[in-house]
């Protein structure tokens, strides 16, 4: 059982709080068909990465702003299959006065929509793809989230599922717990969990919280 003392929690969204992999892959498939772009290369690099950065890598000849808007529209239109991961709703409700935020490679618009569709509690702070100049794996998203919460990154515990997201959080100076998988995808993550009911949070003092993990 792992026990960690923290002051704030930062969550990725897709694959961490929301099971949306099939939805995201379907949307990219639709986009690739519309733009006559091979899907395989997109699927190899899109997990945990902003659509803007995928487009710049795969199809830099296209108008990036137009394509980002198109993908956002597709994500909002085809959001019916996304579901909250088991136990995520209950864990977010258990946070009470623990400061927390969502740090996602989705846009603000898509993040609010997807979390609402899944019935998840909406945080006061979401750092989305449109908030930072450099997306994951750059540390900017997590640095911004910690700063806006008034926290030092070393006091923030991050929950992430993708390699790009884990790199981003570690580079920002946060501790990271990996969601999903049997093995660590980065050697510096603290632990790997697969269900939110493996985690419990308790307040242990003024602005101090204890995370207990039974994985």
UniProtKB/TrEMBL annotation:
Q: Which Gene3D superfamilies match?
A: HAD superfamily/HAD-like, Putative phosphatase, domain 2
State whether keyword Metal-binding applies.
Answer: yes
UniProt entry keywords in alphabetical sequence: Metal-binding
Annotated GO MF terms: metal ion binding; sugar-phosphatase activity
* InterPro entries for this protein: HAD-like_sf, HAD-like_SPP, HAD-SF_hydro_IA, HAD_2, HAD_sf, PGP-like_dom2
Q: Which NCBIfam families match?
A: HAD-SF-IA-v1 (TIGR01549), HAD-SF-IA-v3 (TIGR01509)
Q: Under what name is this protein listed? A: Haloacid dehalogenase
């Amino acid at each position: 059982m792992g026990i960690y003392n923290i002051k704030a929690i930062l969550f990725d969204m897709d694959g961490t709080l929301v099971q949306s992999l099939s939805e995201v892959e379907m949307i990219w498939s639709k986009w690739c068909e519309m733009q006559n772009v091979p899907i395989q290369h997109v699927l190899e690099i899109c997990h945990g990465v902003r659509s803007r950065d995928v487009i710049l890598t795969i199809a830099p000849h296209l108008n990036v702003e137009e394509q980002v808007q198109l993908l956002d529209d597709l994500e909002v239109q085809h959001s019916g299959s996304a579901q909250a991961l088991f136990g995520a709703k209950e864990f977010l409700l258990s946070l009470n006065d623990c400061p927390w935020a969502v740090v996602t490679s989705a846009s603000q618009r898509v993040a609010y929509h997807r979390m609402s569709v899944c019935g998840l509690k909406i945080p006061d702070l979401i750092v989305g793809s449109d908030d930072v100049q450099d997306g994951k794996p750059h540390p900017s998203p997590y640095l911004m989230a910690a700063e806006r919460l008034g926290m030092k990154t070393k006091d923030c515990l991050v929950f992430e599922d993708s390699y790009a997201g884990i790199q981003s959080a570690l580079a920002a100076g946060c501790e990271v717990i990996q969601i999903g998988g049997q093995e660590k995808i980065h050697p510096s993550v603290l632990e790997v969990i697969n269900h939110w009911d493996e985690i419990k949070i308790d307040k242990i003092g003024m602005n101090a919280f204890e995370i207990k993990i039974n994985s």
